[in-house]
Amino acid sequence: MPNPSAPRHNGKQLDPEVRKHNFEEVAQIFTKEEAMAEADRCLHCKNAHCQANCPVGVQIPDFIALLKEGKVGEAASKIMETSLLPAICGRVCPQEKHCEGNCILKDRFGSVNIGMLERYTADTARKEGLLKAPKTAAPTGKKVACIGSGPSSIAAAAELARAGHEVTVFEALHAFGGVLRYGIPSFRLPREVIDHEIETVKSMGVKFVTDVLIGATEKVADLLKQFDAVYVGSGAGLPTMTGIPGENAVGVYSANEFLTRVNLMQAYKFPETDTPIQVGKHVAVLGGGNSAMDAARCAMRLGPDSVTIAYRRSAAEMPARAAEVEHAKEEGVQFEYLVTPKEVLMDDKGRVTGLKCTRNQLGEPDERGRRRPVEIPGSEFVMPVDTIIVAIGQKPNPIIAKTTPELKTTERGVLALDEEGKTTLPGVYAGGDIIRGGATVLLAMKDGIEAARRINAYLKEGK
Amino acid sequence: MEENTILVKENLSDVVVKFVIYKPLVAASAKAGQFVILRGREGGERVPVTLVDWDKEKGTITIIIQAIGKSTSMFNSFKQGEKFLNIAGPLGTPVEIKNYGTVAVVGGGVGIAEVYPIARAFKEAGNRVIAVLGARTKSLLILEDEMKALCDKTVSTTDDGSYGMKGMVTDAIQKLHDEGEKINAGFIIGPIPMMKFTSRLMDKLGMEPHASLNPIMLDGTGMCGCCRVTVEGKVRFACVDGPMFPSKTIDFDELIRRTSEYRPQEAESLKLYEKDHVCKCGLH
Ligand SMILES: Cc1cc2nc3c(=O)[nH]c(=O)nc-3n(C[C@H](O)[C@H](O)[C@H](O)COP(=O)(O)OP(=O)(O)OC[C@H]3O[C@@H](n4cnc5c(N)ncnc54)[C@H](O)[C@@H]3O)c2cc1C
Ligand SMILES: Cc1cc2nc3c(=O)[nH]c(=O)nc-3n(C[C@H](O)[C@H](O)[C@H](O)COP(=O)(O)OP(=O)(O)OC[C@H]3O[C@@H](n4cnc5c(N)ncnc54)[C@H](O)[C@@H]3O)c2cc1C
Ligand code: SF4
Ligand code: SF4
Ligand code: FES
Ligand SMILES: [Mg+2]
Question: What Pfam families does the record tag this protein with (chain B) (predicted)?
Fold first, then answer.
């Protein structure tokens, strides 16, 4: 009999005092006992709300049932019927907004810890050699190119390979994974996990190529000569800066730069690695999303005296994943809410010496229902910091649109799609952050899978 | 043939090396003013280097590297037949090539190599091209023969007077002007102070200066913003908007500050490399 009233298991975490000095994974995998006990809490609902609210429709009650029967490999395969990156989603999904936020047990006993179970299943199946890549259909003879190797392209590539097409993924950087690799730190998502998930997709016959910037190395038009269809999953890799005076001072990083140095280039291992990074004594991080949390927690691990997140609105409006905010606080990251940066102060060598800010109060709700910050007159103050990381959002990199005149964009700079999810250039599909302008791993994957299905139909019709 | 393989290595001076590398996709679309990003080893940094030449038929690119720190020293120790780990490109916006009349290309040090393809493109577009080359001393003055063969006039200067005109490229430009040479546009590549003073002088003499900026770069694709520079009061990303910009109003002082950000780490890294390098090859 299920035991829903048992307390929710959250697993163990590394001690904050220890982990804030290393890049090891914070959340430890469930023990077998924890996994079994947590699986036991699930009621295997008929019309499972959890599943209905997973963007890719992971068959949650079924995989948990298989897990409970001790069939780890089959449980993993069940998840992989709809999500090819189970070890990643289990770690980075904002579960509180998707599956767990809609578990029937949420209000009475606390949701089933679906994320941790998913991760346990994927990691354990991998370790025991039970993780099987999905079967691929007989070769169709059709070729598809995917631009970018973030979660969106990976999901599209896997789905296309499953249908029997020959797929090549082109990545501009020297490593695969997109934001998973250059943005999300190893203490949330160990590098081996990304490597393994990509290996799985490679084992389905997908070819991965580094160092190809589409729009520069080759154009979309060149790809259309070699491939029957193209999927654009190039993400939202253009940093938004504040535009306040002094932003080019030495010691001001965009979150993209800071995180790329730390995560992609592994600057935290310098001089063993060759890419340098510098944090001073006091670090300010501007923003309240996942990038801000990741930047703050990475900065913390480089040993400054203080790290402060300065956010324009209040705690309630912060878009970051709840677990990350919690973890950041445990690690000693401080939060200044309702603060707007006005000017970067610098010394005569152009190095940051402070950040001039004003305080806000919350005003009328904006178009998304979040209350707008309104400046309090005369509230100016200076944060005495020597390093500033700007993490206020990303926009799509314009390079593909600029070099492909047939591809139309909206005024937000994202690629325009019709109702059927097609771009304005026949044979070219798109998804993930390039059409959403910054969303989540799961939504990016969902777009990739859906676009792949449309490409399948397009290639079948032979249009 | 495997991509990224070094087909030819040639030492142009003690510290400057020319590589011809097999990289067909880059060779096929390279244009004057563009660059590649190189990585030499696992854990290695991403280093921007200008495309000096390319051969579509053979699928090769030519780069010229001056060893100044760890990464460039490591690159220059690579032998013929070895491979760079990663080469991405061609990156950056090509220089807009049109007929200005008379164009001066101004190269300082390894900048002479970097400005060479630009000189060639302007020549092919029908310009009269004058090369003004500068180096600290004779042994660092590279590609003079190639420039002479290409350009309508070539003036070489060395700081110490060991070759050509004693002085700096600005002295040579002033002299050209005084001799009645009418220059319509200038394209300058070299150390930042040299680009700053040359831009000022050319502006003053009505020569429409441009400079190729060399901020610290990371991805080279417009993703990180680490290469931001201030041109005409606006923030631009040199890796995608440049690296060549009209240089009347570039904030060169900001560029100097930003390129000095990691000096202590760079010194440490080079020291460790040199220590290791001596041990490994046993020749020093
Ligand atoms: C720091 C940070 C933390 C985040 N944390 C979370 C989280 O915890 N949970 C969550 O759900 N979401 C999170 N997100 C959001 C999530 O990562 C993104 O929504 C998701 O990665 C988008 O996937 P994508 O495949 O569309 O693009 P990306 O992951 O951005 O991948 C795009 C890839 O395409 C490459 N590329 C770009 N242009 C070209 C080109 N012209 N040619 C070839 N290659 C190209 C890029 O180099 C990149 O590798 C986070 C985002 C950031 C920045
Ligand atoms: C667009 C562009 C084209 C270039 N073309 C050439 C070329 O054709 N030949 C050549 O020899 N050099 C070229 N450079 C300069 C070359 O990138 C640097 O000399 C190299 O990065 C130094 O690396 P290092 O580890 O050997 O030296 P370090 O000791 O690490 O650095 C020495 C100095 O080089 C600069 N530098 C360091 N890291 C970077 C980086 N990631 N990006 C840019 N500059 C950096 C800094 O000013 C630093 O103080 C170019 C730079 C740019 C931006
Ligand atoms: S993929 Fe994400 S939303 Fe879906 S079940 Fe897994 S953790 Fe929940
Ligand atoms: S809603 Fe909760 S209890 Fe029901 S199937 Fe989903 S996880 Fe299990
Ligand atoms: S080097 Fe990263 S944006 Fe230019
Ligand atoms: Mg270096």
Answer: DHODB_Fe-S_bind, NAD_binding_1
